[in-house]
């Protein structure tokens, strides 16, 4: 029993030397995630009404598979040292980010009967079903690097966001003040202006609302130039963050490196001696 | 009295070892700033007319609180060494950026009676009331890093801005020359073209004005490609700025760790002495 | 014969010390690529019907030239050491990226008769004819640097792309849920919402579909701010990638400059020996 | 005479220790450049017809001043060592970038009579008059840094541009193939599609043309994601370029630094000894 648990754990959480067979299980789960996202997307199309039954079967099958996967992961959690043994280890695992995402990927399906007849609740549940796309995060090591760099610079990234929001609030209020008389409908209130502000400052620019007075255009021009400058902040922050993280990794590698020896006399050589 | 002043000063300007109680005061002020911004925004909505009295009371309460905060900060300013003692210290504090922002956050409220009946002055005062959003700057250490890096690269950032403006002016004039005959209304004059220029070069692209002639489209295509390249300049500048600033911080930390000594006489040497 | 083959090889694949004559051949090929792209573009214009015969002749001439170039490159491939001698060397060359692009640049022309009368197939072939624009890649050393850096960061770039796609899928589904009732035509299904999602998250913002309800605008605002932050990831990744690649180049240069010797026995040591 | 020439040269080309008086001349020229740009812009406004005479006088006055400045710079050019003495020095100066910009800033004014009655030539001359905005480049040291970094990475920047153009050409042709039947007017030919391509790939997105078929939207979505990734290349290139340039400057500074001495015993200290 214990050896079976270990074997299943190794299949579900392969280390760096994953066997071909373990890689195939990974690939299968990735494909099932993508298929299940596609099923949710297709179900919403009026053209797919004829295929509704097939899609529902596929959806159910995938959710049952993910449920099995979740239960197996929970059962085998104590095999990983960091969670500890027994039910306490399982509870600790169940509270980890990835386990919560796994749970969120299956729960909405079982809550479907609750939505009976209520279209809004039904659609909200559909959204939560899509959370399963985040399950992909487990299968790509590079996410950990991205997340670590974002975490490293989180304070400055939040500060940039606050600056952008301040700019949006101030620019929108100014535009509201000068454009309200010219376009009382488009700039009916400051919240309506905030929609213009966010669409303009992020350079989306749908063109549903835009200033028409000279003063409004001058204010819009200056604030959009400022906002383009502000949006250069996260790029700069992340660039220096990636450099720092890579320097750290290299330093860690060098520390762990085995002693270097002269290939001629066999004596160990310090880096500074060369 | 002096010990009360010190206590209030410590609550208002907590150092790095802020107590839980001091953190709660900080959090309260942040919430009040956000609430007061929300109040100004909601007041502008025609749907909120029924709540107008309540919003006015909330606004008044918050401004009275901020006024008290401003006066307490002014009174306790001499506790901070850098401003110096007595009224000269208070005056010096009152001229600091944060104190001026605090003042700008409360003054518009007291000027409201002046706007009696004049809608434009009234709306302008409302804008200035929103300046209080900048009070948030005090509560986030990361702003200081962002500001220092922008300051470090200010000359190059201004130069990039001048380049962008030159491109906008030249591209807009060329578009005016070739599109004026085809769209005499949209490109009525160079200032009107400048609106097209700024909206296009920042890639907002509302779609209210765009070239329709072949020559105009070629000019627009080339200049928008150039402008996208130019907007890569601030991102690059800030990236190298953040790297430099972080190197400095690390160097300063390392210096503070091991004292430097003269190799001849063995006495410790300050960095400035060399 | 062998010396002729070497001469042609040198003309087609000049090393770092290219003669003026070899540079002229390069320039001729670049011009022909650009002309042939222009020919494909012009052929599609209804105004150019009168010139159709001339364009067809130009097209045929250029394709014959490229065919000759392809055959000569194939014949002289064994001159390059890395492919090896004889037909095995030629086969290995034929499977290289650049050789496949060269083949793709000429094949569509010879398949034209197959499209006889079928407008869609005809237009698809025209697209493939444009692949020849990629032949330019051979003539610019800097592409190799760009490609190497993208390759160096490919895992993180793919991870960023997956994050962007997750955001697009989740934001589009949420918008579909809240906007479907207000705009049943524009947000008819999740796939239709995905079009809104991709156009908004990349900040293109055509303005053909946009949310009109308050909830939809809040969701759109938050997700577009997140996506602008996500799009800062590739810029940051590539910035640190270029720095790393340049450091490597400099290190390789310095290594080649001064021989390293063992400090004990004085003998020179190769980097790989340590 | 020679001493007068030197004095004028010092006023026009102040070194690093510019006197207050020399700075005022600089500021005057910057103001005149901005005023003359404003004059050209205002002249194009139909509302300014009443002020036409005044604007023409201002324009003439400024051009006469710039002409005097150009002639004085030409006369005093031999004072700068790098151009050499006599007329050969003047000729060499006249061929420098800044001198050509100065010339281009005044020539269009004197060519105005040639445009007599021809509106198109008249407007083209007006564009060239705006070139004087580039005269600002002389007055900001930071431009030299931006230009040097762009020059340092010019090969890679050009390669990025070629990649973007390849993507635009291929995406536009594909969209033309799939959208031509659905929107024969908007996607009338490949050149018309190229307009869509450039507006979409740079994320301007006016909304005057956009795909409506499912295939077209898939192609557009994929290519716009790719293009956003490609536009991260210049930001990354410039970021690493600025870091490199700053490292160089620091290295140059350290090399030129004066010997450091121990403040206690006065003996010189090598950096490595500390």
Question: What is the gist of this entry?
Answer:
Four copies of one chain form a homotetramer. The first copy, chain A, is mainly α.
What does this structure look like?
- The structure is a homotetramer of 274-residue chains.
- With 274 residues, chain A is mainly α.
- Helices cover 68% and strands 0% of the residues of chain A.
- Chain A has 11 helices and no strands.
- The longest helix of chain A has 26 residues, at 154-179.
- Chain A is flat and about 75 Å long.
- Chain A starts with a helix and ends in an 18-residue tail after the last helix.
- The model of chain A has no long low-confidence stretch (mean pLDDT 81).
- Chains in contact: A-B, A-C, A-D, B-C, B-D, C-D.
- At the A-C interface, helix 2, helix 6, helix 7, helix 8 and helix 9 of A face helix 8, helix 9, helix 10 and helix 11 of C.
Topology record:
4 copies of one chain form a homotetramer.
Chain A lengths: L1 H11 L7 H24 L8 H25 L9 H9 L2 H15 L7 H12 L11 H11 L1 H26 L10 H12 L12 H17 L1 H25 L18
């Amino acid at each position: 029993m214990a050896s079976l648990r270990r074997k299943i754990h190794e299949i579900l959480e392969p280390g760096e030397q994953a066997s071909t067979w373990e890689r195939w299980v990974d690939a299968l789960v990735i494909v099932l995630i993508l298929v299940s996202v596609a099923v949710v997307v297709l179900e919403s199309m009026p053209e797919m009404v004829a295929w509704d039954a097939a899609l529902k079967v596929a959806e159910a099958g995938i959710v049952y598979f993910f449920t099995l996967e979740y239960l197996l992961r929970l059962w085998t959690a104590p095999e990983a040292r960091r969670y500890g043994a027994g039910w306490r280890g399982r509870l600790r695992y169940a509270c980890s980010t990835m386990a919560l995402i796994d749970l969120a990927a299956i729960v909405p399906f079982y809550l479907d009967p609750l939505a009976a007849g209520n279209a809004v609740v039904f659609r909200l549940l559909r959204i939560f079903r899509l959370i399963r796309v985040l399950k992909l995060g487990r299968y790509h090591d590079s996410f950990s690097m991205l997340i670590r760099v974002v975490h490293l610079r989180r304070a400055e990234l939040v500060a940039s966001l606050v600056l952008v929001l301040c700019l949006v609030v101030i620019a929108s209020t100014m535009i509201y003040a000068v454009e309200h008389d010219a376009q009382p409908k488009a700039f009916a209130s400051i919240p309506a202006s905030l929609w213009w502000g966010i669409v303009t400052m992020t350079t989306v620019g749908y063109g549903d609302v835009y200033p028409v007075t000279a003063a409004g255009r001058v204010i819009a021009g200056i604030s959009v130039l400022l906002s383009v400058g502000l949006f250069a902040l996260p790029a700069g922050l992340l660039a220096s963050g990636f450099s720092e993280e890579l320097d750290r990794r290299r330093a860690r590698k060098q520390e762990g490196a085995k002693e270097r020896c002269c290939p001629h006399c066999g004596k160990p050589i310090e880096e500074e001696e060369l």
